[in-house]
């Protein structure tokens, strides 16, 4: 049941981000949609981070590569295209920071959604850091320090709280099952579909900009083709990235 809920929430949040950007392009009301969706993503990240061997450098390496490899596959072409068409005025230095996943630190963002990549990487670093404190008091201080950092520096304390809530709830709830036994069922389909959410999240922005700015598509066409092209792209991205991640994390 936990796995089903997680899969459903991930698909719901990913859909919310897509709708938010689609509505924004066409000057339609999208207030609050991104806020709710990111809160859900952070909640799930916290829940899925609990109980892992997060004090291991290998754990941190795998987490970073699972985020960055698909991101690099998408962002490198985006940076090159931006250099050619001058969609946004950026420097070589800012492009390099974007490539490293540091979009949250930049004012002008080539790929707006990439700020969340920085945010997730920082959350993983926090989990790695706090895992070294076994004493309850010290761990509490670490979480308080984390909250202050995300509040004072990034103004993202609400997302950090959602992340912490997910981490806290995971201590009471059963772990998610990575391999549901329901074969050939809607549940199995739902579980498999959520595997492509991250790829969809990365790709959909570029797809929507292409449809809106280049193709001059209307709202309905952008919705239909935006979903279709983003799904196709996420399937291809997932396949390529998975092979690269396996190679990068294989024992030497």
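^ Assign residues to that structure.
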């Amino acid at each position: 049941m936990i796995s089903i809920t997680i899969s459903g929430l991930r698909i719901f949040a990913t859909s919310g981000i897509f709708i938010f950007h689609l509505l924004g392009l066409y000057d339609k009301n999208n207030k609050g949609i991104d806020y709710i969706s990111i809160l859900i993503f952070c909640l799930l990240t916290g829940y899925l981070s609990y109980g892992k061997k997060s004090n291991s450098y290998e754990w941190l390496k795998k987490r970073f590569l699972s985020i960055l490899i698909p991101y690099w596959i998408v962002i490198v072409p985006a940076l090159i295209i931006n250099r050619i068409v001058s969609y946004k005025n950026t420097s070589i230095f800012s492009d390099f920071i974007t490539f490293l996943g540091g979009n949250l630190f930049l004012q002008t963002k080539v790929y707006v959604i990439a700020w969340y990549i920085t945010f997730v990487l920082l959350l993983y670093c926090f989990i790695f850091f706090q895992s070294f404190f076994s004493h309850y008091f010290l761990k509490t201080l670490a979480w308080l320090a984390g909250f202050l950092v995300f509040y004072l520096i990034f103004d993202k304390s609400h997302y950090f709280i959602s992340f912490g809530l997910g981490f806290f709830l995971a201590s009471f709830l059963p772990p998610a099952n990575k391999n549901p036994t329901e074969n050939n069922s809607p549940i199995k389909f739902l579980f498999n579909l959520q595997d492509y959410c991250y790829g969809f999240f990365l790709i959909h922005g570029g797809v929507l900009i292409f449809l809106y700015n280049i193709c001059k598509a209307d709202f309905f066409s952008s919705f239909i083709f935006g979903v279709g092209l983003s799904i196709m792209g996420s399937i291809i991205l997932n396949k390529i990235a998975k092979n690269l991640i396996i190679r990068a994390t294989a024992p030497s």
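Residues 219-249 form the longest helix (31 residues).
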